[in-house]
Amino acid sequence: MKKIAIIGAGPAGLTAAYELTKRNYQVDIFESQDSVGGMSRTIMLWDCLVDIGPHRFFSSNRQINELWLEVAGEDYQMINRQTRIFYKNRFFQYPLKPFNAFKNLGPYETLRCIISYGQQKIAPVPFNGDFESWVTRRFGKRLFFIFFKNYSEKLWGIKCTELDADFATQRIKKLSLYEAIKNGFSGDSAQHKTLVDQFAYPSKGTGMIYERMADHIEKNNGQIFLNTKVKRVVVKDSIAQGIELEDGTIKNYDAVISTMPLTSLANTIDNVSSSVKESVAKLKFRNTIVVYLLVDGEGLFTDQWLYIHSADLHVGRITNFRNWLPELYGDSKKTILALELWCNSDDEIWQYPDEKLIEIAKSDLKKTGLAGIKAIDEGFIYRIPRCYPIYSKGYMEALLPVQEYLSGIENLYPVGRYGAFKYNNQDHSILMGMLAARKIDGEQNIDLWGINTDYENYQESTTITEAGLKHNTKKGSHQY
Predict the structure, then answer these.
(1) Torsion of CA 237, 238, 243, 247, to 10 degrees
(2) Model-level pTM?
(3) Spatial CA neighbour of 31 closest among 218, 240, 206, 205
């Protein structure tokens, strides 16, 4: 029986362990936090179950959907998605609906957007490999400024000219002004896979899936060590032989699956070359501060979450948990909002005390007018370090040497958003965990680095519905 160490109990790590225990491997998971689920955990707050920000599950991949349904059983509901852009105190449908956009922008601004778009069709700006030029060529300079610039720079902490176009090609590659208008008139938002009209949501919150995986793992010869931080992966002669814990304890294993930040993994391995360390130093992560506010009242707005595009506000996204599964609130007549602030580890705001962060969030919420005059009873802070891999322009030039170095270490498998330095959603991380288990079990032709965050490239298209798994007629070409 082979022993496998897994660093991190998020979606990728738990999925890998779940699959390996079904194959009779002995699995030990080491998680630095006090519960499983990673960014997809669910917490109890003010007698209600809430997620760490918004987490909707959607996939068109048969394997992912089958596994998710295997774990969820019948304990889920389909949620009608509504996520709008809040800009200048107006709600803009997302994806774009022509009449809604024209009404909110007004005739003068609408004309400016149309002229700006036309200019790009006649004489497009040069494509410089950055996010700004990519979006401008698709939407025009004016729409870029209104709907992309402020939000993106708030999220990533860099100018859009410094953000790599990879972010756009992964997330919005098939979306253009023409497609948005055409789909708006036809009502077909499913043309773009990140803009689905419905998504599956577990009856006890997103974290329910991963808590059930953890239960299965522990019932099948697996162990989960919470509040246990891994210091480094032990590598000798280019072979991963185990891990060292923070307290100095060394444990031997036949293979190691790592979901710890790629930068931490590479930096802590013995005898890493100076050139690899130089590449690692160029890879950065962004932090999130989630400020939960308990508002005395209901009916604030109808969206699951809002994108806040106002440059004068700190907050970038606001989640309204009452609009997911109202029954999670019980008889409460109050509303829990989650306001997200993004920053770097060396930013002053990351060190602010909880009370100051709560006051910033309260002030921003008041400026939006979304809560009206309703009282805010309490606040709670949840900090997430290094949760967004920053796709700074040319980041792949730094990432590839690190990938090549780690690929040369036998029995080491970096996966997940942190571990692979990929801007994963849940489904992508689940797929990485599944394939890491298969690779350990003998399918050596699997390239874990090659797993894309592209929604269009799955082998067989399926959809989760209330009745279970629906097989679609359209098929893609992804080898997995």
Answers:
(1) 60
(2) 0.91
(3) 218
The whole-number average pLDDT for the span 381-401 is 95
90-92/83-87 β-pairing: antiparallel
Burial pattern 239-253, b for ≥16 Cβ within 10 A else e, equals ebbbbeeeeeeebeb
> Maximum Cα–Cα distance for the chain, whole Å?
70
The structure tokens 């991190």 sit at 8
For position 22, what pLDDT does the model report?
Answer: 95
Structure tokens that stand for 111 in this block? 């004309």
| Residues pairing with 305 in the sheet | 83, 319
Which residue type sits at 26?
A: Q
Query: Average pLDDT for residues 349-357, to the nearest whole number?
Result: 97
Q: Is 57 buried (19+), middle (13-18) or exposed (0-12) by CB count in 10 A?
A: buried
Residue 153: both structure tokens together: 């720079």
Rounded CA-CA distance 115/461 in Å is: 38
For residue 83 the two structure tokens come to 């996520």
Gap between the Cα atoms of 237 and 248, Å rounded: 21
State how far Cα 139 lies from the chain centre. 25
Assess contact for 79 and 326: CB atoms under 8 A: no
Cis peptide before 95 (omega within 30 of 0): yes
Long-range pairs for 268-275: beta carbons < 8 A, 24 or more residues apart = 268/231, 268/232, 268/233, 269/232, 269/233, 269/235, 269/409, 270/232, 270/235, 272/405, 273/405, 275/401
Supply the pLDDT for residue 193. Answer: 47
- Residue 79's DSSP bridge partners are 199
Place of tokens 């019980």: 330
Work out the number of other CB atoms within 10 angstroms of the CB of residue 200: 21
Q: How does pLDDT run across 240-271, given as a tens digit for each residue?
A: 999 999 999 999 999 999 999 999 999 999 99
Instruction: Report which of residues 469 and 336 the model is more confident about.
Output: 336
